[in-house]
Amino acid sequence: MADGTDAPVGERRRLGGWLPQAEDQVGAFREDLARRARDRARNAPRAEVVRDLATLIQNDAVLRMNLVRAIDDAIAAGYRLGHSTIDELIAIIDYLMTYAPPFSDSSLVHCPLNAVLEWPMCMPSGYAFFRDPALNLQLKRVLNAWCGFLCGPHSRMHLHERPPDGWFSREATEKVGIDQFVCSPDQPHWGFASWNAFFTRQFKSGARPVASPDDEKLIVSACEASPYAISGGANIHDRFWIKSQPYSLQEMFTPSQRELAQRFAGGSVYQAFLSAYNYHRWHAPVSGTITKAYLVDGSYYSALEAEGPDPNGLNDSQGYTTSIATRAVIVIDCDVPEIGEVGCVFIGMAEVSSCIIDVMPGQHVRKGDELGFFQYGGSTYCLVFKADVIERFLVTPHSGGKAKPVHVNAPVAQAR
């Protein structure tokens, strides 16, 4: 497809429940968001970080050209974007700076900016636009500003019991399984200080027991996440941008960590994706000593051309995101010498504006101890093992994105 005009308007396999499956529901959401943004723009000045984003795009001819073409191509393909110009898009982004997602039993939009950008980002010009380093640095500022709002008390407008949008209505609490989490129903907003405090809610003691805590060769899930892919024979370098998306270790760990990547050459990678309603904290898959803990800046809305602008394209870019997206890397030197180091890569997707690491190099952790958390948004993670360490994986990815989440601290692999 050269210009986007022959792309079929259809359903997408949106993984994890971050957006509705039906395209017409997402289109209606975008148009409603655009109406709200226009109303706000008449009465409120734009946020500084959004003004800076607009200035960057307008002053860079290549960025401006690519974004205009991406928007035009998506509209020509028949998608209801809610915007047709850069200025209209910027107004929507500004509106989102004070937006907290309401609950919806039928059409939840957990990642509103992803909903707005999802079709321009997979048009031919959109691929180049969303890979630009300067753009991603500015998007990081925008998302961090939004994250600041979501960490404050004004973000709690939907943390109430009233249907249909309250997160503590009967429908929502059943969907979330709130009785498993630490909360205080007798307090305002059930004791949560902000939207992000609710999003990063913690399980009650005993809700997710560690599988076989004394069997150090049984490796457990670091997140509450559905199996996405299992791969063996990982290479130092690979063509992670092709459709098969093999894992490229040096890109995953970054070129500055080449020696670390070499130690995992020929090893195995387990990848799983998190869902909108689930737990978003990370836990140690093995017991051992933290040897590395660092953050990697990267892209936020970059998809893979090889998947194509079809109903599965953006969702199937998760292998690619391990090498290019914003992420946190934690390496644990397992107490069992035969296992050695285990790489834990927690990857932010779309609205994730911050990955928070709770541990430091030199710290010893037990299997099941918390390592950090995703502050907000869609996300995926990988466990990376050295060659000949894994005897067998105990979970199986399912095609079509229908795999149920593996509980955090539940078994995922058996070491030799």
- Give the helix/strand class: alpha+beta
Gyration radius over CA: 21 Å
Q: What is the mean pLDDT?
A: 88
Relative helix content: 25-40%
Q: What is the CA-CA span between the terminal residues?
A: 47 Å
How many domains make up the 3D coordinates? 2
**How do the strands of the widest beta sheet line up side by side?**
2-3-11-7-6-5-9
Could you describe the largest sheet, including whether it forms a barrel? 7 strands, antiparallel
**What would you call the shape?**
globular
Runs with pLDDT <50, length 5+? Answer: 1-13, 240-244, 310-314
Q: Percent of residues in beta strands?
A: 15-25%
Tally the helices.
12
Oligomeric state of the chains in view = single chain
SSE string:
HHHHHHHHHEEHHEEEHEEEEEEEE
Could you describe the 3D structure shown?
Keywords: Decarboxylase, Lyase, Pyruvate, Zymogen. Residues 48-175 form the L-tryptophan decarboxylase PsiD-like domain. With 416 residues, the protein is an alpha+beta fold. The chain folds into two domains: 1-199, no CATH class; 218-415, Glucose Permease (Domain IIA). It contains twelve helices and 13 strands. The protein has a seven-stranded antiparallel β-sheet with strand order 2-3-11-7-6-5-9, with helices on one face. The chain has a three-stranded antiparallel β-sheet with strand order 1-13-12, with no helix packed on it. A three-stranded antiparallel β-sheet has the order 4-10-8, with no helix packed on it. Strand 6 and strand 7 form a beta hairpin.
